[in-house]
Every structure is written in structure tokens, then in C-alpha cells.
Amino acid sequence: MESTIALEHSKRRLTTLSNFNNDCFLHAAIQLLYGTPSFIESLRSVCNPANSSTASLLLKLFAKMDDPSFNEILTPTSLRRTLQEEYPLGEQHDGHEV
To answer: Which tops the pLDDT comparison, 93 or 26?
Structure first.
């Protein structure tokens, strides 16, 4: 199974995320997670794609990033909005809380 995941991962393409609101720190985290096949597999195993949770929005974004027919710059607006609702601006949140 691990070799299948690694093979799929090796075929991934580079995707550009727009820096809409000076959120390059978020994009760095997204690209890091996108490049971690075991994280994606774990997320798929526990996520319900029908809801609008952070996990399902992340998987939907990863699917767009994997889609070779999608050639536009991605703006993860829905994901950013959901994160802002879960963790309001101006409040301290540690990494383990996210």
C-alpha cells in the first residue's frame, strides 16, 4: 500500500495558490500537507466528503490541485473562511489547537 501511495505522490503536479490576503503562511502549510501522502490517506479514511468541515475542504482543494485539466491559480477561499470561523482573528491559538 505504501508503494502505491508513493507512486501516486510522485505523479503530483505543482500548483500555484494565490496570495489573496497575505496568507502565504497558510499556503505553505497546504503545500506541505499536500506533499505528505500518508497525511492525505489518513484524512481520506476519517473524512466525510459531503460536509464542509476543514478536512473535507482540504481534500477538495487537494483534488483540484491533482486535476491536470485545472490550469488556473487556486484561491483556497472556502478553506480560509472556515478556518477563520473556527479560529477567529485576534485570538491566540497554538499549533496543537488547530
So the answer is: 26
